[in-house]
TrEMBL record:
Similarity remark: Belongs to the phosphate/phosphite/phosphonate binding protein family.
Biological process (GO), any one: transmembrane transport
Cited InterPro entries: PhnD (IPR005770)
GO cellular component: ATP-binding cassette (ABC) transporter complex
Protein name from the UniProt record: Phosphate/phosphite/phosphonate ABC transporter substrate-binding protein
Region listing for Disordered, in residue ranges: 1-38
Segments passing through the bilayer: 50-70
Organism superkingdom: Bacteria
Annotated keywords: Membrane, Signal, Transmembrane, Transmembrane helix
């Protein structure tokens, strides 16, 4: 494999900064470099107070306010962290709306921020700088192993708690299979991305290719949007994203579906999570999780979840078992297949979770 690109000029302009990583983090072997542990600067969200346009939302939410078993401490303040899976400002705006709705539903106060990397959310939760993490699948697995982070809710899209990874390329590239990627310029998302790194890495290995030697050049682009744009603009020959990340830029690039095609899909992957730091009081976790679950069923909450994160529902453990027929002993066990894929890909979780 060629050198990992560190020059950001190779990437399309995006508010989420591109991430450069060492050659070793692309090797997919047991020497994978640990994720960096810098906790990102928090981007606080000022919670908008209810005004006349918000009365409809307030009336809708009135039926989902969780009745407290005891008075809610006035000083209770929680911080939600989001991974930069798509354009950061879009996520932040949705985080603002979700925080506002949660404030009305729980009586707690909320701030939100979008980390500059996936690892940033993991480390923020470990350092108690974030209480609630909207963690992608692989980041949850790492955060659980390293800091005991607890998953309470699974996201649902297109009627299922699963999704897939894709590899995309320009329609005229002549690339039609994994074999055609040999020696090409390739964009991953982030070392802690499930669909933008882990599952494509395992897919290459399963097809008999050594990712360390396979590509002519490989980069970490920092977000799925960045990968899509890099492929569309010809900055790279192909890239790994979630299914179907092309749709996120279709408004600004109406020909994206014609110009960029899919050449590979992974097996199903458990969806991303709403997770809580380990030592957050159980009653706080319960209250927030119940509020999220309830307002995800009503227009104001569902619209906030859909606008950036494309979430159409949330599922707790009982719903996962009864509605979606997933037979697992716990929510955490739902993510065991991801741990298996990491081992198969040669990524040693023990290396990723070593103390700093």
């Amino acid at each position: 494999m060629g050198p990992v690109v560190t020059d950001r000029s190779h990437l399309p302009t995006d508010r989420s900064p591109a991430l450069a990583r060492s050659r070793r983090s692309l090797a997919g072997d047991r020497t994978t470099a640990p994720l960096h542990s810098r906790v990102p600067r928090r981007r606080s969200v000022t919670i908008r107070r209810l005004t006349a346009p918000g009365l409809v939302a307030a009336l809708s939410l009135a039926v989902i306010v969780v009745t407290p078993a005891a008075p809610v401490p006035a000083q209770t303040k929680l911080v939600m962290a989001f991974v930069p899976s798509v354009e950061a400002q879009t996520i932040l705006e949705s985080g603002n709306r979700i925080a506002h709705l949660l404030e009305m539903a729980t009586g707690y106060h909320f701030d939100s921020f979008v980390a500059t990397s996936y690892a940033g959310v993991i480390e923020a939760m470990g350092a108690r700088r974030a209480d609630i993490g909207w963690l992608n699948t692989f980041s949850y697995v790492i955060a659980h192993e390293k800091y005991g982070v607890e998953v309470r809710l699974v996201t649902v899209r297109f009627g299922t708690p699963y999704y897939r990874a894709e590899i995309i390329t320009q329609a005229t590239s002549g690339i039609n299979s994994l074999a055609d990627l040999k020696g090409k310029r390739f964009a991953f998302v982030d070392p802690a991305s499930t669909s933008g790194y882990l599952f494509p890495l395992a897919g290459l290995k399963k097809a008999g290719y050594d990712p360390a030697q396979f590509f002519g050049q490989a980069i970490f682009a920092g977000s799925h949007n960045n990968v899509v744009l890099a492929v569309y603009q010809g900055r790279v020959d192909a890239g790994a994203v979630y299914e179907d990340a092309r749709a996120t830029v279709q408004k600004t690039l109406p020909d994206i579906m014609q110009k960029v095609k899919v050449v590979w899909k992974s097996d199903p992957i458990p969806n991303d999570t709403v997770s809580f730091r380990r030592d957050l009081p159980a009653d706080v976790k319960d209250r927030v999780a119940k509020a999220l679950l309830r307002f995800s069923e009503l227009p104001p909450g569902l619209d906030a979840l859909k606008s950036a994160l494309e979430i159409e529902a949330l599922a707790d453990y009982p719903l996962l078992v009864t509605k979606y027929k997933i037979n697992v002993p716990s929510l955490d066990a739902f993510y065991d297949p991801v741990r298996d894929v990491a081992r198969y890909a040669g990524i040693n979780l023990e290396d990723l979770i070593k103390p700093r």
